[in-house]
Structure formats: structure tokens, C-alpha cells
Amino acid sequence: MIDIRNVTKIFKTKSADIQAVDDVSMNVSQGEIFGVIGYSGAGKSTLIRLFNGLEMPSSGDVVIGEDVISSMSKPALRKKRQKVSMIFQHFNLLWSRTVAENISFPLEIAGVPKKERQKKVKELVELVGLSGREDNYPSQLSGGQKQRVGIARALSNEPKVLLCDEATSALDPETTDEVLDLLVKIRDEMNLTIVLITHEMHVIRKICDRAAVMENGRVVETGPVLKLFQNPEHSVTKRFVKDDINDEETALSFDEVRELFPTSKILKFGFVGSQSKAPIVSQVVKKYDLDLNILSGNIKRTNNESYGHLFVAIDVDDGTLQRLKAELADHDVTVEVEDQ
Ligand SMILES: Nc1ncnc2c1ncn2[C@@H]1O[C@H](COP(=O)(O)OP(=O)(O)OP(=O)(O)O)[C@@H](O)[C@H]1O
After folding, report:
1. Could you tell me if the CB of 270 is within 6 A of ligand 1?
2. Domain boundary, last residue among 180, 215, 243
3. For ligand 1, is residue 41 a contact (CB within 6 Å)?
4. Which residue range(s) make up the domain with 201?
């Protein structure tokens, strides 16, 4: 559906050339929710703006469906943007227009007759849960409601692709989850392909199927979301996963744990899916007659699986540890020894 091929974007400024996107390649399948995550300045906004031709690549190709975005004429591109629409962090609504008029605006530009526009607006208002608010102005709405208007407006021309530029970054956690649920609903109902950029791993975990991690303009890691959470390889991915799990408290208490149990090793067991509920660890620990102190645990849900980890302090010699690791590996439970 979307094919990004060796795309580079260099901004030429008076003082220097800035390489915002550096040789990025990625594919997004039809119906997928694909996330791009990175810290500030990683190149996410530039990358997503390349998807709909708001920026043109310095080299490489952006292909959406049958069209090579990077070599389209301006009028063709304007037309294409009706099918590759976008929502924004600060909503970009027209403040002097009501909810209904905002949603109707792209249809007016596309020359859709009034009757048809009204019908479409009504459908969209219902779809995004804003019935009764049609005549309100944006200033009368909460942040979450404003983004619902942004989403309805973006859907008015029945796009194939929805680009989300930090769409929940201005929202509180509860409203973020409501808007994310809405994105999943419209993906399912309209068979949309969604590409979102974010700096919040929670957003990736909650709704994305696959994600790419960016640093300094490059994609440093990409894969199915569960894989990124379970087995992050790049240091940036590890930081994002750690922030999401938020085990700072555990990290702080490790020193105390070492004082309390000087001969113990601190282990982290990692689980996924059904294993996260089964008593595998308890069975294996019993079998080797080990004493175990549970330090902390956490189970999180991705869009379709649960995964989790358990930190324990355990008095175990190296030989037994190897056997324990092998046995747990047979049950898809990973074991990591935390640094002493
Ligand atoms: N129009 C521009 N002219 C010059 N440099 C730019 C331009 N747009 C972006 N940059 C630079 O490109 C780099 C990547 O910026 P970009 O906004 O794409 O990153 P980002 O990951 O989206 O960060 P943020 O979340 O802070 O927006 C930065 O160094 C930025 O200063």
C-alpha cells in the first residue's frame, strides 16, 4: 500500500544543510496501523509530511497505492491528498466555523453538492461521537472533541490513508485512549491504512500493528509491536519501552535489594500471550527448590496480546541458572540477569 524507498530529505539553510530524514525505507500494508516513534528532532514530522507531498524528498521515492507521490504535479497532488488525509496535534480547525462546517469544508472544496455534503457530515458526526455538537464552535469543545472534529474532517473525502501527526500529544491520558480507540474503530470500519507519528510508546503499544523507531533521521529498528516491546534491540527502543513500563521504582530499589540479599541474583522474567498467565515460573522454581523474592511485576496489553515481566531476587548458582534459563525458554519465558 505504502512504499518508502531510500528516502532522504535535506533542508538547506543559510548556516548548514540539515539531514532530517536519512535513507529511510519502509512498507505499510493495507489496513495496517503503523507507528513511527522517536524523540524530538528525530525526523518524524518531516517523514510523515513526505507521505502526502507536503515535503518532497531530496532523493528516493514515496509510493502510495499506484502513485509515486514524489514525482506528482501539484494539481495531481492536491487531488491525491483527498485520499491521503492528515490530522494534527493542534487540530488545525477553522475557529470561525462550526463543527458541521469544519467537517463539510473539504467537501465544499471538492465541489460536492450541498445535499450530499449534509448527509455525509451527519454520518461523520455520528461516527466520531459528536451528535448534538454540530452547531458548536471549536472554542466550545474539549481537546478530545476538537480532535474528533479533526478526524471527521479528515475522513470526509473517504481517504484510503490517514496520517496522524502527534494526534494525541495535546490530550490527557484518558482522552488519548478514547481518541486511539476511535482510530482503531475507523480503521476497522473503513479499512483505512493509518500511519502515525508519536513520541509516546503507550500510543504505539495501544493501537499499532508494527512500528519504526527513528533517531537522527534514520530508522534504527522496525518490527511488530510485540517484538519491539519484548525484545527491543536498539538503545533508543529500549529507552522507550522502559519509559512505558515505568520501572524506575524497581531500578531504584535494586541497590537495597542487593544489600538485603547479597548472595542473590536479580533476574527479569519476560512473558508473552497466554504464558503471562500460566504458573510456569512457580513450577520451575519449585522443581529446583529455590527461594525467590518477588521485587515487582507488570503485565501490559498491546493491541492484540498481553506481555509482561517479573523482577525477582533469587539465590542460584551459575549451573542451575543455565538449566533454569533453558527450561523456561522452552515455555517462551525469557530470563535476563540484571547487572550487578
Ligand atoms: N523546514 C525546515 N527547515 C530546516 N530544518 C528543518 C525544517 N524542518 C525540520 N527541520 C530539522 O530537521 C530535523 C528533524 O525535524 P522534525 O521536526 O522532522 O523532527 P521530529 O522528530 O518531528 O521532532 P519534533 O517531535 O520535535 O517535531 C530537526 O533538526 C529540525 O530542526
Report:
1. no
2. 243
3. yes
4. 2-243
Record the cell numbers describing residue 25, joined without a space. Answer: 525505507
Find out whether the beta carbon of 21 lies less than 6 Å from any atom of ligand 1.
Answer: no
333 in Cβ contact with 293 (< 8 Å): no
Tracing cell 467537517 back to the chain, one arrives at 103
**What CATH number has the domain bearing residue 255?**
3.30.70.260
Which atom of ligand 1 is least distant from the CA of 46? 18
Within 10 A of 73 (CB to CB), how many other CB atoms are there?
A: 8
Rounded to two decimals, the pTM is 0.83
**Average pLDDT value for residue range 141-157:** 96
β-pairing, 67-68 with 59-64? antiparallel
Atom 26 (ligand 1) nearest CA: 40
Shared-domain flag, residues 90 and 42: yes
Give the tens place of pLDDT for each residue, 31-88: 999 999 999 999 999 999 999 999 999 999 999 998 999 889 989 998 888 899 999 9
Give 205 Cα–ligand 1 centroid separation in angstroms.
24
